[in-house]
Amino acid sequence: MTTPTTHKNKTLATFLALVLGGIGAHRFYLRGSLDRLGLLHVTSIPIAGMVWGLAQDANPFYHVLPFLVSWIVAFLEALVIGLTPDEKFDAAFNAGAGKQSDSGWVLALLLVVTMMLGTVTLIGTISRLFALLFTGNADG
């Protein structure tokens, strides 16, 4: 891992994972623009477009499923980033920055919101997918 020249803020990384995590913004912030997993998040958009283009008469839920999976992974990454101890986060991302992280109540609030949104998204995705797979969309 390269030594960063600027300090990486753990609260900002968690916020990016919460708000723009589906396109990998938190990965690019922490690891740079060539991060492979960040690019995998970005590819969920063209994959969703390919699903829509190849199966236009399929249920619209399938068209957004790749993007939903990317968001669920981003919510999990937000929790991992936010719950990482400051010392361990600094050792991984701020080794050469000369400044230490000091997380506060904003990070705790972001983690609560992430947990709520992530849980709702995961349960909603699982329930809708199972309804489509097992009933053939019989219930709407």
UniProtKB/TrEMBL annotation:
<dbReference type="Pfam" id="PF05154">
    <property type="entry name" value="TM2"/>
</dbReference>
<feature type="transmembrane region" description="Helical">
    <location>
        <begin position="61"/>
        <end position="84"/>
    </location>
</feature>
<keyword id="KW-1133">Transmembrane helix</keyword>
<feature type="transmembrane region" description="Helical">
    <location>
        <begin position="12"/>
        <end position="30"/>
    </location>
</feature>
<keyword id="KW-0472">Membrane</keyword>
<feature type="domain" description="TM2">
    <location>
        <begin position="7"/>
        <end position="42"/>
    </location>
</feature>
<dbReference type="GO" id="GO:0016020">
    <property type="term" value="C:membrane"/>
</dbReference>
<protein>
    <submittedName>
        <fullName>TM2 domain-containing protein</fullName>
    </submittedName>
</protein>
<keyword id="KW-0812">Transmembrane</keyword>
<dbReference type="InterPro" id="IPR007829">
    <property type="entry name" value="TM2"/>
</dbReference>
<feature type="transmembrane region" description="Helical">
    <location>
        <begin position="37"/>
        <end position="55"/>
    </location>
</feature>
<feature type="transmembrane region" description="Helical">
    <location>
        <begin position="105"/>
        <end position="134"/>
    </location>
</feature>
